[in-house]
Design a protein that fits this description.
about 850 residues; Four Helix Bundle (Hemerythrin (Met), subunit A); Hydrophobic Seed Protein; Bifunctional uridylyltransferase/uridylyl-removing enzyme; guanosine-3',5'-bis(diphosphate) 3'-diphosphatase activity; EC 3.1.4.-; magnesium; Polymerase_NTP_transf_dom
């Protein structure tokens, strides 16, 4: 595309730095204005042309144009003539011999001018010999030379370089192919093997621009093809696939171009910060979350297509380029399928006219663990079948039978399911899956698209049956051995989030879908009801474990009454564990594992006792005391002293803590010389999944604030907190803390935290500083704190519930408000779910009474003001 005449005129007349800046500023404004009016390919070509003209003009300005042996060569993306608004400008100055000092000085002035214009450049000065030597050592540099283009200067030297690149034995086709495949595999591993994390890199992620460019680079090297279209003549691309690649390329270019405009710099990762602005620039709307989700669904679907085409074409290339790749022995699997090395191939493409044979292909993959991939010609045939489907694969009775065989197969939900997901067969089978394919969740909790999250969940369930994974999933591995129908667990996993993005309660909508699926596939009524119940209640166990006191018999009784029986408890526990672990790589830790395990065991016991005969709270307290006392007696403690300490504690203390914690607290207090003085202990090793902190002190309204501030200042995360008062006016604080990465606190750090807590109690006037290091990633989510005040079961207490983003110092801010309003904290439950905090406080006013309506209004307003200021 031709540049605007005004740009050309401004550039030709430029003399001073300010002139060049004015010209660049006008050009960038033109780019932005034209983005919505013409194809993006025109604009990225236009920027390359603008940079060409700019470099040539500066070449003349600095008297480099008269150097006869100097060639200015564009390499990399710039060499292809493709430059996004803020893309790096890579060029090489090719010389026949090392330049003189005078020429070097001119080159230095030329480069400095480019820096002064705020251009991101990558440049080098090389002879042909130096360029070839660098090519020998660096495949990335060799790749950039493949796309070199003469901008200005000595065309003879440039032609010599091009001839050397073609004729040189350095990086033969097979070596280059293997190096680029290895480079791609490494790049994919860095992205955790998925294109579907929610802040994808448009260039580097699987299915991104690099995957497209890898195809082009290999084609250029081996086939000496300058364009993708030439691959049609070589028999590697169909016309339809060529058009599809062009469409994907244009879409990725559009998104990358908009990302550059939104970021105002060279940026390839579509960060949350930039997603709303980029979506608006691309025309997806300005309605925040909905606009972003529309844009991201488009992007993820494009990346899926690119990744599939990339795999197919590289497999074709491998057969042509690598010696012996096409000469592997053929092993017949049945009359329609055969295995070649680690790949499965259909013998005759017409086999898929019988649609159930698609699933037979995956049954063979389940039967043969040595099969890891699908042969490229078979991928092509499957793609054609997908495009020609007039309905859903589940419409065919034979497909339903084959699908059920696969889901019941011991290995059916392993690699076979992964490849079905990857190649769009699950989406072709289940219409609801197509709705969640590429569906992102614009929050700080989920790290993957809905379909990829579900795929990871299924993969987690599959691991339960793997004997080598018993140490990773001990209780689940034990439970699944007694499951009569594991396929019901898999189906619950497939449907648990399948209704997301439709509006309404996805659990309820998904349970209806599950019932319909069960009826269509002729499941017994009881099986359909179990799948549906699991989908409807798949959040029940995690919510109960993380938000309620699972040591409270009433909580267990209520949960057990909803679960109803041990069979449903087993299925729900296995589904919940797989769900949480598939949500976010940073979400799972030993603390959450312990909570779920204890809830499972408490509920199992309640169900075995019978809901009509629930365990009485007094029986629970008696049992805990007996077990804790036996631990203490075994450690040589005195029984009378134990009873004396326990006589000061209220009944709620013994329901709130396990016998292990009770004995640990008691042993600490028994070792204190003077129980009238405050004391602190921190566990050296993990207990109940985290590092335990126990503090004992005379009551002080400001103490909670000081303790949480100290823990925050030590860069530890509070996962759980309890505040209980004794009969004689003392207060007990219990915290479960973890490192930022979810690990228990290291023993040397634990002692430092203990000393800091002791100092905070003993010196109330000492200031505690928390370094604010709040990530900007929160600002675009517009997650406003939710604050609810309601009556408590005790008439002289009030309950405050706060849900907010878990920003650094959140608890300190809350405690400061409580302290300013002279509130007494009688109990607290602190819960962190991903990057969301859900905190509950039982409080009273300064007269130890429930909050009045006026006090509630003032505290609500103060909390909202304080917390909103932190999230803006």
């Amino acid at each position: 595309m031709a540049l605007p005449n005004k740009v050309k005129k401004l550039l030709s007349q430029a003399e001073q730095l300010s002139d060049y800046r004015d010209c660049s500023s006008y050009f960038y404004k033109w780019l932005q204005n034209e983005f919505s009016k013409q194809p993006v390919s025109n604009l990225i070509n236009a920027r390359a042309e603008f940079i060409d003209r700019l470099l040539i003009k500066l070449f003349h300005d600095y008297d480099l144009a008269h150097e006869s042996d100097l060639a200015l060569i564009a390499v990399g993306g710039y060499g292809r003539g493709e430059l996004h608004p803020y893309s790096d400008i890579d060029f090489m100055l090719l010389v026949s011999e090392q330049p003189s000092e005078a020429v070097c000085e001119k080159i230095g002035q030329f480069v400095t001018m480019l820096w002064d214009l705020n251009l991101e450049i990558g440049h080098s000065v090389r002879t042909i010999e130096q360029a070839l030597e660098q090519k020998r050592e660096d495949v990335t540099f060799a790749t950039s030379l493949l796309e070199s283009r003469l901008i200005f200067g000595n065309h003879i030297e440039f032609e010599k370089l091009k001839n050397h690149l073609i004729d040189s034995p350095i990086w033969r086709s097979d070596e280059f192919f293997l190096a680029k495949v290895q480079e791609q595999n490494l790049r994919h591993r860095k992205c955790h093997g998925t294109a579907y994390n929610l802040e994808p890199n448009i260039k580097e992620n699987p299915g991104g621009l690099r995957d497209l460019q890898t195809i082009i680079w290999v084609a250029k090297k081996h086939f000496r093809a300058e364009t993708l279209q030439e691959l049609i003549n070589h028999g590697y691309l169909t016309h339809e696939e060529y058009q599809e690649l062009l469409e994907c390329l244009e879409n990725l270019w559009n998104i990358r171009f908009a990302l550059h405009l939104a970021a105002g710099r060279s940026e390839n990762r579509l960060l949350f910060d930039h997603q709303p602005h980029a979506a608006e620039i691309l025309g997806f709307g300005s309605d925040g979350k909905a606009s972003v989700e529309r844009m991201m669904k488009r992007l993820f679907r494009i990346m899926s297509r690119v990744r599939e085409l990339n795999q197919m074409l590289l497999s074709y290339f491998e057969q042509s380029i690598l010696p012996g790749a096409g000469e592997l022995p053929v092993i017949e699997l049945d009359r329609n399928f055969e295995r070649i090395g680690h790949q499965i191939r259909v013998k005759n493409p017409s086999v898929f006219f019988r649609r159930d044979q698609l699933f037979v292909l995956f049954e063979h993959i389940a039967d043969n663990p040595e099969i890891t991939h699908i042969y490229p010609s078979t991928i092509r045939t499957m793609r054609q079948v997908r495009r020609r489907l007039l309905g859903d694969l589940q419409d065919y009775a034979a497909c339903r039978e084959a699908f059920l065989r696969l889901i019941k197969h011991p290995n059916g939900m392993g690699r076979a399911f992964t490849l079905m997901h990857k190649h769009g067969i699950i989406a072709a089978y289940l219409p609801q899956w197509r709705n969640i394919f590429g569906q992102m969740q614009f929050d700080l909790f989920h790290a993957y698209t809905v379909d990829e999250h579900t795929h990871k969940l299924i993969n987690n369930i599959y691991k339960y049956f793997d004997k080598s994974k018993v140490s990773e999933f001990p209780l689940c591995s034990e439970i699944v051995t007694r499951m009569d129908k594991p396929e019901l667990l898999y189906l619950a996993g497939i449907f648990h989030d399948i209704a997301k993005g439709r509006g309404g309660d996805h659990s309820e909508l998904g349970s209806v879908d599950a019932i319909a699926f069960a009826k269509l596939h002729r499941f017994p009524s009881s099986d359909g009801k179990l799948i549906s119940w699991l989908v409807a209640n798949h959040l029940l166990m995690s919510v109960t474990a993380q938000r309620k006191d699972i040591n409270d018999p009433d909580v267990i009784k209520d949960f057990a009454s909803k679960v109803k029986n041990e069979r449903q408890l087993d299925y729900l526990y296995c589904l919940t564990l797989a769900d949480i672990r598939a949500t976010n790589d940073n979400l799972w830790n030993d603390w959450k594992n312990t909570l779920l395990r204890e809830l499972y065991l408490h509920t199992q016991r309640a169900l075995r006792l019978g809901l009509e005969n629930p365990m009485d709270q007094r029986d629970q307290i008696r049992d805990k005391k007996q077990q804790a006392k036996q631990r203490l007696l075994n450690h040589g403690c005195n029984e009378d002293q134990i009873d004396l300490i326990w006589s000061r504690f209220k009944a709620n203390y013994f329901t709130a803590f396990s016998e292990q914690q009770i004995s640990w607290h008691t042993e600490h207090l028994l070792n204190c010389e003077d129980l009238s003085l405050p004391s602190v202990t921190v566990s050296d090793t993990a207990m109940h999944g985290g590092t335990q902190v126990f503090a004992y002190s005379p009551y002080s309204g400001s103490l909670f604030s000081r303790l949480v501030s100290v823990i925050g200042s030590k860069k530890a995360q509070i996962q759980h907190a309890q505040v209980l008062t004794t009969k004689d006016g003392y207060v007990l604080f219990s915290f479960v803390i973890l490192e930022v990465n979810g690990d228990p606190i290291a023993s040397n750090r634990a002692q430092g935290i203990k000393r800091a807590l002791e100092l905070a109690i003993s010196d109330p006037k000492k200031k505690i500083r928390i370094k604010k290091n709040r990530s900007q990633r929160f600002k675009d989510f517009n997650i406003k704190p939710k604050i609810v005040l309601r009556p408590h079961a005790r008439k002289d207490r009030s309950l405050i519930e706060i849900q907010a983003v878990d920003i650094p110092g959140l608890l300190t801010k809350i405690a400061e408000v409580f302290q300013a309003h002279l509130l007494h904290i009688h109990a607290a439950r602190i819960t962190t779910v991903g990057e969301r905090a859900e905190d509950f406080f039982v409080v009273s006013n300064n007269e130890y009474q429930a909050l009045t309506d006026e006090e509630q209004a003032k505290i609500h307003q103060a909390l909202r003001k304080k917390l909103n200021a932190e999230t803006e």
